[in-house]
Amino acid sequence: MKIKKVKYIKTLQAALLLLLMSSLHAQEHPSLILTKQGVKEIRSQLGKVPLFDASLVETKAEVDAEIALGIIIPLPKGFSGGSAHERHKNNYQVLEKAGVLYQLLGDEKYGIYVRDMLLGYAKMYPTLPLHPEKISYARGKLFWQALNDANWLVYASQAYDCVYDFISPANRSIIEKDLFRPFADFISVGSPQFFNRVHNHSTWGNVAVGMIGIVLRDNQLIDRALYGLKEDGLAAGMKDNDGGFVKKEGQKAGFLANLDEPFSPDGYYTEGAYYQRYAMYPFLTFAQALQNNKPDLKIFDYKNKVLLKSVYALLNLTKTNGEFFPLNDAQKGMSYYSNELVSAVDIAYLYAGKDPSLLTIAKQQGRVQLNNSGMAVALGIKNNLEKPFVKKSIDLSDGSDGKQGGVAIIRSKMKEDELTLVLKYASQGLSHGHYDKLSFSFYNNSTDVLQDYGLSRFVNIEQKGGGNYLKENASWAKQTIAHNTVVQNETSHFGGNFETGSKFASEKYLYDVSNPKVQIISANENNAYPGTTIQRTMALIAQDGFEKPFLLDIIQLDSKTVNQFDLPFYYLGQLMSTNFAYETPNNLETLGKANGYQHLWKAGTAILTVDNAKVSWLNEGSFYTLTSITQPNDEFFFVRIGANDPNFNLRNDPGFIFRKKNVQKATFVSVLETHGNYSPVSEVALNSYSCIANLKIIYEDANYIGIQIKSISGVETVFILSTENNKSNQKHHLIIDSKTYEWTGPYYK
Amino acid sequence: MKIKKVKYIKTLQAALLLLLMSSLHAQEHPSLILTKQGVKEIRSQLGKVPLFDASLVETKAEVDAEIALGIIIPLPKGFSGGSAHERHKNNYQVLEKAGVLYQLLGDEKYGIYVRDMLLGYAKMYPTLPLHPEKISYARGKLFWQALNDANWLVYASQAYDCVYDFISPANRSIIEKDLFRPFADFISVGSPQFFNRVHNHSTWGNVAVGMIGIVLRDNQLIDRALYGLKEDGLAAGMKDNDGGFVKKEGQKAGFLANLDEPFSPDGYYTEGAYYQRYAMYPFLTFAQALQNNKPDLKIFDYKNKVLLKSVYALLNLTKTNGEFFPLNDAQKGMSYYSNELVSAVDIAYLYAGKDPSLLTIAKQQGRVQLNNSGMAVALGIKNNLEKPFVKKSIDLSDGSDGKQGGVAIIRSKMKEDELTLVLKYASQGLSHGHYDKLSFSFYNNSTDVLQDYGLSRFVNIEQKGGGNYLKENASWAKQTIAHNTVVQNETSHFGGNFETGSKFASEKYLYDVSNPKVQIISANENNAYPGTTIQRTMALIAQDGFEKPFLLDIIQLDSKTVNQFDLPFYYLGQLMSTNFAYETPNNLETLGKANGYQHLWKAGTAILTVDNAKVSWLNEGSFYTLTSITQPNDEFFFVRIGANDPNFNLRNDPGFIFRKKNVQKATFVSVLETHGNYSPVSEVALNSYSCIANLKIIYEDANYIGIQIKSISGVETVFILSTENNKSNQKHHLIIDSKTYEWTGPYYK
Question: Domains, chain B, ranges and CATH?
Answer without folding.
Answer: 406-687 (2.70.98.70)
